[in-house]
Design brief:
This protein has helices spanning 2-12, 16-29, 61-64, 91-97, 147-150, 156-173, 197-204, 254-264, 303-320, and strands at residues 34-40, 46-51, 100-106, 113-119, 122-129, 134-140, 178-183, 186-191, 213-220, 223-230, 235-236, 242-246, 249-251, 273-274, 276-281, 287-292, 297-300. By secondary structure, the protein is α+β, with helices and mostly antiparallel strands. An 8-stranded mixed sheet has the order 5-4-3-6-2-1-7-8, covered by helices on one side. A 5-stranded mixed sheet has the order 9-10-15-12-13. The longest helix has 18 residues, at 156-173. The model has no long low-confidence stretch (mean pLDDT 90). The structure holds adenosine-5'-diphosphate and magnesium ion. Keywords: DNA damage, DNA repair.
Length: 323
């Protein structure tokens, strides 16, 4: 059982940022309106996610830490009907198998919270915990017992940047939720919930983009592309500032990245990249978003149509701006 969990953990938890992604997605799935993330040394020394969501009933907390225990599959197990970010029930047990995990939670109708500690797959202790409604998960000593893996971690700085990137992308998808990020006791950002997507995106991307970008709003057949894209004069040396979303989920898809590059081809100097946030919406039957959720890969039924939509939308938007 432990070995199985550790193997699964390799898939889910490559580095602090991948554990963090799972925890924040769980907080979103729990209908939270406020999510606080605290990191120590890029998450290598600690990851803490606190939400005000529905919580986990005390008698289900052990189960939540077991493999393939999910509360998110519809009764008929129809994966197509899943609207949550998770449904595999692998994240918590995987993380708990390679770290020390403290899970505290309280539902709206219970008088107090409950706390369970699991250390590298071994139950340590549980008991009552004072807690407002919601869930608090702390992950310490990630990979401390797996030196071979710990060795592969990069500097705290680069782990931090990867964590920041994960939070930034998820925060862009849910401007209705308040997000705060702290690193080594320092407030990185604090965003109010209930703001427009435009405001949320602007708050998270380079502020100077505002005067150097166009709004993208484009519809073709059943596909829609919305967002903000920089003028070719405003660019970066790395493609890190391209935030791409499919049906509300952050993705890092080759086809989309290639399409963006094609749209800006001839407009940008070599090795320059536009800064943009683009939200593609299309019917669920035209895309498989769960090919490799951890890696953000998707598969489109008609990739040519997607490519042509993106190139067309960007070209038209950039032309309209009078460039
Ligand atoms: P999945 O998200 O695929 O269901 P996880 O391993 O990520 O699996 O989580 C297991 C279960 O624990 C979830 O199905 C959910 O019931 C519960 N859970 C985890 N995190 C939270 C949270 N922040 N708030 C409420 N419930 C949670
Ligand atoms: Mg999950």
């Amino acid at each position: 059982e432990d070995v199985i969990n550790r193997i699964a953990a390799g898939e889910v938890v490559e580095r602090p940022a991948s554990a963090l992604k799972e925890l924040v997605e769980n907080a979103i799935d729990a209908q939270s309106t406020r999510i606080l993330i605290r990191l120590l040394k890029g998450g290598l020394d600690g990851i803490e996610v606190i939400d005000n969501g529905i919580g986990i009933p005390a008698d289900e907390m052990r189960l939540a830490l077991e493999r393939h225990a999910t509360s998110k599959l519809p009764d008929n197990d129809a994966i197509e009907a899943v609207t949550t970010l998770g449904f595999r029930g692998e994240a918590l047990p995987s993380i708990a198998s390679v770290a020390r995990l403290t899970l505290e939670s309280r539902t709206a109708d219970s008088d107090s919270g409950w706390k369970i500690i699991v250390d590298n797959g071994h139950f340590e202790k549980e008991g009552i915990a004072p807690l407002p409604k919601g869930t608090r998960i702390k992950v310490d000593s990630l990979f401390a017992r797996i030196p071979a893996r710990r060795k592969f971690m990069r500097s705290a700085k680069s782990e931090y940047m990867a964590c920041h990137d994960v939070v930034r992308r998820l925060a862009m998808t849910r401007p209705d939720i308040a997000f705060s990020l702290e690193h080594d006791g320092r407030r990185i950002f604090s965003l109010n919930g209930g703001e427009s997507r435009q405001r949320r995106v602007a708050a998270l991307i380079d502020r100077t983009l505002k005067d150097n970008s166009v709004t993208v709003e484009y519809q073709r057949d059943q596909m829609q592309l919305e967002g903000v894209a920089s003028l070719p004069t405003f660019h970066r040396g790395l493609a890190d500032h391209q935030y791409l979303f499919v049906n509300g989920r952050p993705v890092k898809d080759r086809l989309l990245i290639g399409s963006v590059r094609a749209a800006y081809h001839d407009l940008l100097a070599k090795d320059r990249h536009p800064v943009l946030a683009l939200f593609l919406t299309l019917p669920n039957s035209d895309v498989d978003i769960n090919v490799h959720p951890a890696k953000g890969e998707v598969r489109f039924r008609d990739s040519q149509a997607v490519r042509s939509l993106i190139v067309g939308a960007l070209r038209e938007s950039l032309d309209l701006s009078g460039f």
